[in-house]
Amino acid sequence: MAQPMTRTPFQVETGRLVEPVNRDDHVRGPGSAPVTLVEYGDYQCPYCGRAYPVVEALLAERPTVVRLVFRHFPLTDLHPRAEIAAELAEAAGMVGQFWRAHAWLSTHQGQFDAEHLRGLAVEIDPAGGVEREVERRAYSDRIHRDFLSGVRSGVNETPSFFINGVRHDRDYSLAALRQAVDDAARAVRPS
Question: Is the pLDDT of residue 12 over 90?
Fold first, then answer.
């Protein structure tokens, strides 16, 4: 007689980062930084677009204190071009240009039509490899893994931030993020 299948429960840990930062993540900043800021974002989300310059300013102000990890969380029901934008960022990463694509996608949200995205792909890789990878959706599994890790961590909106593994539920103004990062750094390295 066949044994019934047992299912591993899909565990959600609200308020905590479930998937630790790993070698597959896109990371900016020193590995020795006492604070890791993980952002779950959607390139077509206007709130993510507003958060981008805030995060950039924070990285500029605290270059040795914070490192950034970006994970994809495309809300395709609301933002139908978010997933293809994430594909482009991932394909750009294949040629060492993830952060360049990330910056463009974060600041050109009104230009996610096929012509502009193709232009970015060709600009990043004139040989056409990025464009081919996007066309075949080569990174859909990777994007899906990021998304599921966000769901398991209780992400339900974008942007969502985690500071040293703890969800940042306050606003993401520069002052609020700076304070949260400074508090986390002090907790790691008490004065």
Answer: no
